[in-house]
What does this fold into?
Amino acid sequence: MSKNKFGEFPFEKGIYKNMYKDRLWTMRQYAGFSSVHESNKRYLKLIENGVSGLSIAFDLPTQMGFDSDDDMSLGEIGKSGVPISTIDDMENLFKDIDLEKISVSMTINSTAAILLAFYFALAKKRGYDFEKLRGTLQNDILKEYIARGTYIFPVEHSLRLTSNIFEFCQKNLPKWNSISISGYHIREAGSTAIEELAFTFANAITYLEKAKEDGLDIERLTEKVSFFFNAHRDFFEEIAKFRAARVLWAQIIKKHFKITNVKSQICRFHVQTGGSTLTAQQIDNNIARTTLESLSAVLGGAQSIHTNGKDEAVSLPSEENATTALRIQQIIAHESGVTNYIDPIGDSTLIKDLTHKMIKEVNLKIDDIFQNGGMKTLIENGEIQKEIEDSAFEFQENIDAKKTLLIGVNKFVNKEEKIDHGTSFVDKSKDRLEMLKTFKKSRDSKIIDEALKDLVQSAESGRNLMPQIINCVEKNCTLGEIIFALKRVFGEYSE
It folds into this structure.
């Protein structure tokens, strides 16, 4: 894209001059089901329905570094997403999908290097042109210590892996965003909008400082950094938040890192509607909630959006509800008329005032973070986690006291309603374990041992680990085996 297509610094009105008049946001639906085959079927259906990017949800064992046949995986296989333990799993996940034509986002953090290795090995096997492959790896481990808890290694070793991925993608996958720094999960854990932006950008600064320390070209790196934000309840506050995010990031890149490159300064972000805003009560109301949240993301200038299914407060979304959620975006894009205007609400005094107030408050909080030791120190001390917990507690107190209204929960309650706690989850763990058993039996144990030994030596040497991790997956090592080998060198993090 030519330089003159970008907006004007600091990009409050949008990162592109003509925004959606030139190109709509990517409609990216997040999905992962109890088996690779079920997930593949859903992805093919989503592509048929007009999705232009896939967003992969992984199950908890995969996120935590356990193979499906590990005792720690019992009862969790395929529950929160797709289980991936082997290169064969990745091959089946993307069966009949041309990865040169579909952008792939992988929501994975502590095991991000291994999932990227599976993807890269598959692309290599299929003979794809690496320069045509597009996607995003979340690879945002700091927010796991803050908000989600799916960490494995101590913070310093996790940051090393993150930086290794940056370097690998720069050299091998030029169109991949090697990190998507997430405020989404921070907000889901109960933070305020101010905390969501402040902690996200403080994490971003921490990653870039580590990359700089490791000798990476951070100007090139920042061209591929993207963000992931939450679209929450307060319509105007959320619009202002997205606009503030662009200004804040542009200023951080220009003032803190002294980078004048426009591509580095623009804040590209994906938005997902707020899972924590959905209710199990009167679930049809969730369609209205996600519509307003999606519209706030559009008016805020998002580059890609995921709309939650109405049933996601109680289960993985059914195919019907996932399609309806996608239709919300399509109606906004093609029927509402919003996309006929470059910045339809940018001249609103309300939006301007909210945006500038938010910029000021977020900057104060970021300054405070680094004056008190930075994110690594504050995470290890538990101070960031405590601040989010306090905000979450206050929000819940306000709901309980009816200071904050939640329709169907503490206002306009249907006392006769029977809440459906059913789920679309189908337990495929028996088939899954049999498949994994067959895979492991077919391997040469000497080749596995040698590959893992080489990985341990690389981890001890301080070299970039991506080539050795790719070697392991190509030799048919499993995700769990790779993680276990790295634990021998890095140890495990205990909060």
